[in-house]
């Protein structure tokens, strides 16, 4: 029986109970935090959830020819790469990361952009899985069978700098920035060289840490209150961050409470803050 996910978030208990489902694909989307000086796990032996496939955001599922990090692939490239890791039209995907909730929402957002709905992130990620003492293993290099995944591209979920220039003065749109308040205000240094401090004009600070606690998403009731506080007039959201990773956390938070009118600025602050001629506020 095909496994169907109705919400973009599943528990480790749910995943454990469905671990042997033939349609299930588990993706490990771990990347180090850009704000971390050193990956604390770099010297540790890597372990994964049983059957997990590595989803390489940085080297496979980002445009290596782009000037900016984590730029999403074209729909043609994404389709090929997703097929190569065995994704099918009827797959059920659960994606996680080693931090808890950090990079996994970016993968969820990529698949949303490509028109694939049957995907969720794992609440609490690998730390929560280990806490429950569920089965782990060393990464496997199994031969993957090519999938039949097809893209149904949803352009409205992606925003470029040209879109942001129009959005700045659009009173029906709210640009929300997932970076820390200090980076938003330009009083904390940016982790990437040649990127100025500050924020996009008329944007608001919405640190992703407001909806993630101890590596898990806050309750839906709390989530609704936070989003209502940020956006009382219920404008359309465009989420931004440093390079499109944590903006996707805000996107999944919106989706969890039924907000559908949202998009992600793919280049985010790395593109805006390093491009000459763009206005910056502090």
Task: Please give the structural blueprint.
Layout: E1 9-10, H1 12-17, E2 24-28, E3 48-49, E4 53-54, H2 75-84, E5 92-96, H3 104-113, E6 119-122, H4 125-131, E7 136-137, E8 158-159, H5 161-167, E9 173-177, H6 181-185, E10 204-205, E11 212-213, E12 216-217, H7 220-230, E13 236-240, H8 247-256, E14 262-265, H9 268-272
Parallel strand pairs: 1-6, 2-4, 2-5, 5-6, 8-14, 9-10, 9-13, 13-14
Antiparallel strand pairs: 3-7, 11-12
What features would you describe in this structure?
- By secondary structure, the protein is an alpha/beta fold.
- The protein has helices at 12-17, 75-84, 104-113, 125-131, 161-167, 181-185, 220-230, 247-256, 268-272, and strands at 9-10, 24-28, 48-49, 53-54, 92-96, 119-122, 136-137, 158-159, 173-177, 204-205, 212-213, 216-217, 236-240, 262-265.
- It folds into two domains: 9-153, Oxidized Rhodanese, domain 1 (3-Layer(aba) Sandwich), CATH 3.40.250; 156-272, Rhodanese-like domain (Oxidized Rhodanese, domain 1), CATH 3.40.250.
- The chain has nine helices and 14 strands.
- It has a five-stranded parallel sheet.
- Helix 3 links the parallel strand 5 (92-96) and strand 6.
- The longest helix has 11 residues, at 220-230.
- The termini are far apart.
- 40% of the residues are buried.
Largest sheet: number of strands, sense, barrel closure: 5 strands, parallel
The level 1 CATH classification of the largest domain is Alpha Beta
Return the domain count: 2
Instruction: Tell me the total number of β-strands.
Output: 14
Averaged pLDDT: 95
> What is the CA–CA distance across the termini?
53 Å
**Strand/helix succession:** EHEEEHEHEHEEHEHEEEHEHEH
- Number of helices in the DSSP assignment: 9
| Radius of gyration of CA atoms, rounded to a whole number | 18 Å
